[in-house]
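ugh ok fine here u go
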Amino acid sequence: MKKIETELNDDLRPEYDLRNLRVRKLGPGRRGFGETVRLEPDVAEIFPDAESVNEALRFLIRITKENKPVVNPVEPKA
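structure:
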């Protein structure tokens, strides 16, 4: 069979050079753009954006570290 060449008529401007366009892969071979965490609806309702979620989590991390219980070291036997 002979390959038929078709002429494309599009409205793409000449300054848009798409020859180096890379198409995102789908599936397991796809590179990630970072970790995504899905919030349950009741939690998402409280936070207006990602910045406020991160701020709350950093606060929780800080107070958890500051309030760690002190483990009593084993006292040497006299």
